[in-house]
Amino acid sequence: MAPAITLAAETELSAANTGFMLICSALVMLMTPALAFFYGGMVRVKSTLNMLMMSFISLGIVTVLWVLYGFSLAFGTDSAGLIGWNSDWVGLSGIGLTELWDGYTIPVFVFLVFQLMFAVLTPALISGALADRVKFTAWALFVALWATVVYFPVAHWVWGAGGWAFELGVIDFAGGTAVHINAGAAALGVILVIGRRIGFKKDPMRPHSLPLVMLGAGLLWFGWFGFNAGSWLGNDDGVGALMFVNTQVATGAAMLAWLAYEKIRHGAFTTLGAASGAVAGLVAITPAGGAVSPLGAIAVGVVAGLLCAMAVGLKYRFGYDDSLDVIGVHLVGGIAGSLLVGFFATGKGQSDVAGLFYGGGLDQFWKQCAGVFAVLAYSLVVSAVLAFLLDKTIGMRVSEDDEVAGIDQAEHAETAYDFSGAGGGAARTAAAPAPVAVPAENRKVDA
């Protein structure tokens, strides 16, 4: 993320950069519905709508909070390196239509709406770990609380002028720490509190619609170009173009690495593996893409693809129920991409900081470690505390009967698919019941 600048520069509004950033903002907004499709296809039929809604509700909740106080907390005047505040930004008042974001050629309104889309997406990422078992009301309250006490402060640490990680020199181009490690650690904290799904490691819990998963992954890949390239806040020096190229390169490399691991380990190239590998590459290049070369992006993608493919099976070994591999992909991928900056940064991209392989030693690596593990620890602990408090007050989980019968009907009074007219309606007789589709196993994991 291009940093906020504390002193205003002599700049003029650029119509080109402003238009580009508005397009990028729309692309990032698309990522939340894309995530809903990606997650929605990975769950069983009886949880499809709930999974979609757990992402969509973030578009409403976080948008309102961002207007009321979120933008001010994340990007306002720094206090002790931990949080921001600007009373003129409460309710987005006091901002002129052509007032520029300090040091840049885009209006404040454009910057804040771009950042809003990041704030919306991040809590939605957590939802994949909690599939099948969380009350929708409890989830909505968790999103509001988590955005307030975790995301807004962490965004300030990493990207806000005066934030401690920003001042330390932690490189996070577009959200390896603030988005992916933050969400992955939160997912782990919550599932340690709420426990496993009924039937975990016993009942088949296969994706019900792999085409939906692939659609979601493709839309995520598309939207991620805005997410990454837009984070330089303009197109004046080629860094955004480098990030665009590296986004494509790392994603392709990670997909190939995941599929190669899957073929060697389990004997098949799966569509779910291709989609998951692509997302792993997108996650890993997010913090690193402005600092590494395209060859470095291949390395980042390959490492992330392999590590994430191996990590998704850890839930069976250690017994935590990460329903849709949020920890295995977003936490592990975010850590990998953030730390690899310390090795592959060329000093010729977003800054002159060089990593170990380019003569820079380990100085940047240790800075990356500080950012990674501080965000991980803070998000893990605070998210677990929030889940615990909600569980002890209103309850986080649906009843056992509702979980078994299907959370869609229990929480939303709907079902994803209506098969009542399938197969010809009146022409079907009792002697010829409608066939039931049984999905095949789509990902083999280490049990």
From TrEMBL:
Q: What keywords appear on the UniProt entry?
A: Ammonia transport, Cell membrane, Membrane, Transmembrane, Transmembrane helix, Transport
Question: What is this protein's name?
Answer: Ammonium transporter
- Origin: domain of life: Bacteria
Q: Which residues form the Ammonium transporter AmtB-like domain?
A: 20-417
Q: Is this entry keyworded DNA repair? A: no
Has UniProt tagged this entry with the keyword Cell cycle? no
Q: Which family does it belong to?
A: Belongs to the ammonia transporter channel (TC 1.A.11.2) family.
- Where does the record place it? Cell membrane
